[in-house]
Records
---
Amino acid sequence: MSMPVAALRRSPRAVTLNPAEVSERSIRRRVSVVWGLLYLNTLVYEPGSILKIPSFAGKGITQGALPLAILVALTINPKIRVRPNGFLCLLSLLVLDTVITAADPQHVGTVYRTFRLAEFVFALWLLTPWWGRSDMLLLRCHLRWILVALGTVAVGLLVAPGHALAQGGRLSGVIWPMGPTQIAQYAAIAIGIIVLLWLARFLSGRITLIGVVLMTPILLLTHTRTALAALAAGILVAGLSLFSVNARVRKFFAAGAVLVSIGVATAASVLTSWLARGEDTQGLTSLTGRTNFWALVLSQPRTKFEVLFGFGLSNASVDGLPIDSNWFASYMMEGLFGVIVCAMILVWLFTNSFFQPRGAQRALALFLVTYGMVASFTEVGFTDVSTYLLNLVVAASLLIVPFSRRETT
């Protein structure tokens, strides 16, 4: 018998797995598939791919991903066993709000978006038995699919750099159409998760270095200030939660303070120019014109019902102009009720994290929630189906205590 064959037979991998291990592996894979389909459903398809995908086909892929995700989720949770928790209860209130407004819809799209949000939240309920796992299953699935999306962006940049940088030098996705702010969010979230996993000693320094080196240029090429600010705030808050119990965090903050000081002293003009993006003072003070759009939101004529519950789910725009704010979009689509529920979601997550023991899961949750809170002021966030909503779902799953000391399988 040859040595390789003998080694294979002695290897534990060559031994048939017991039924429990086979079931656990199958469940993890299907949870990852469900999460990938939910992630795909959050992507908005617009013409512009170098693959020349027809618009109807691109939209069909994203829209069909959601019912398929529910079907796959039902294969691992056929009895529809769920874990009641404050986060999804609050999210269900948003669904209730949209159902109320959809009862008298102004557009057919309102009904479709309402049904889509209800489906999305139902799929999240089906995954609740796998929240709170010590292996952070949903976080790993989330990071995996973010890296897949960023991989397509990197390939597009290598294959068609002129097309990828056509929007004023800002990086866009051309394999699957993605905007600069969308790519910046993915890159910032990936960097934050990787750094925090390294600080908590879940990743080696080599893997962390490779991840940060690959993701940082993508983030910088998008020229998105919101993502940078949210990333810095998220790592700061998450790091401070580990500061007193983790020596690596203290060294990281000390080294970061030195590097930032040197960078500001030696490259202040370059940083200022990069952050300004060629805008004048008026453009900066109006947040690239966003405040003008917000004024349009507030000036819309409303009945008392529309003040309370909004106009219903839409593409988060007014007079064809994007709102670019979670709070103004929420007021526009879901009224004051929606704004209050969105605020309660953030308060619930922050309050719940306060009562969790210090550790990696708490730090990662704080990073995701802080990122979402900062970005919500200048980007549409978690009022509807979006990756921002998935970020908060992952944060909520990290703050849930398992059913028992034994993992759910």
Note: Confidence is low (pLDDT under 50) at residues 1-12, 405-409.
---
Amino acid sequence: MQINIINGFLLTFLAGAATAVGSAIAFLSGSRGNKLLSFGMGFSAGVMVYVSFVEILPNANKIIGEWFTLIIFFIGIGIAGLIDRLIPDAQNPHQARKKSLIKELKITKLSYKKHKLLRTGFFTALVITIHNLPEGFATFIASSTNLSLGVTIAIAVAIHNIPEGISVSVPIYAATGDKKKAFLYSALSGLAEPLGALVGWLVLAPFINEYFLGIIMGTIAGIMIYISFDELLPAAHEYGEGHTEIAGVITGMAIMGVSLIIF
């Protein structure tokens, strides 16, 4: 088994940097930004679901067996659910915002005191850091052992990180009126992805072999399925209009299927 650490860290960093994209989207007005966000989250969910069931789990089955893969898969779901359970709804980066982003900023400014908003923004950034650590390690492992699979997962995780950037930048901007500061903290929160990769590598590197990789892959599949059905799809539905999120899901699955055949 060959491991390319540079590929792993690079793709993990790029996936984490997507929080900065979310921060930029938060400053766009109108519903077009919401539709794009809905389509993007649906696309990410489609990619994650397809690659989990068609690529990752079958590979894990070959390495550790079907029964053990099944157990590990649901353990991954449990881990993701536990992390999500520990995050208060108000700070959860994947809770949907039903109004337009800029309208929400204006409402927020009128509704809460600035110091409370600033505290909310900083706390959200901290929560996102904790939330993204296992995602960073999962992206790193996939990217460093299978480049084509890693690129796919990194893109899906990057799209899924966009709402996190929004969750950080909205309250900080509303409290300070400083777009640069809101953008900076949003971007910094994305560094949790490569941080998770680094910590995971330093701790688990001595134990990584083909069998251990099978366990990690089964866990990754469970985490991604939970993220898709519990976080991405509900949020995409709230942001979108009509069947925007479904179009994203189908497009994500189609592109993922074609890429697996080609590569």
Note: The chain is about 85% helix and 0% strand.
---
Amino acid sequence: MLKKALGTGVVLLGTLHFQTAIAENFSANLGFNSEYVFRGIPQNSSSAFAGLDWSKSGFNLGAWTADVGDGLEVDLYGGYRVEAGDFGFSLGGTWYTYTGDFDEDYLEANVGVSWKFLAFAAAFGEYDSDPKQNYQFYSVTASHKGFYGTFGTFADDFDGSYYEAGYANELTVGETYLFNYGVSIIHGTSTLLGGDSDTNINFQIKRNFSF
């Protein structure tokens, strides 16, 4: 139950720069993970995923889906992000749904603050179990030239932490964009996984589309 309650999709938020004019954008992505690991918890091996996003003046709406073995995970999300100088602030929410019996549907609120190479994220949700379980999630990420490191931890009715380090970039030939790629190593603690600790290596390839 803990694995299913915590192991869900990624929240993506829109962007607004004070100095730019209002713009409307549509984008999509299609990719593959050798290991689908979310917040330190393994979800599924060899997982394909796809997403569609709309953004305008800092607001963002989107949908993202991934293979979780027992059907599909489908995430519907929205948010708002504003940037001022080196600082960024975001607020949003996600509705997690499933086509199979992997998990029950539930909602999560998300908050983010960033400054230069540092980013802080927080999530607050309630899992519809019997009795109901509330959880909080906090993470801090440092990044530099494609390299990044993340520490994440849970609080309230859920517990445990994870560590992640990786590298991500895009492959181009001349001025032609081909695809994004990344590799990461993720270590979940025994408390987080409800038994033994576990370390996974994930290879990702993703193609972004703008229109």
Note: The mean pLDDT is 89.
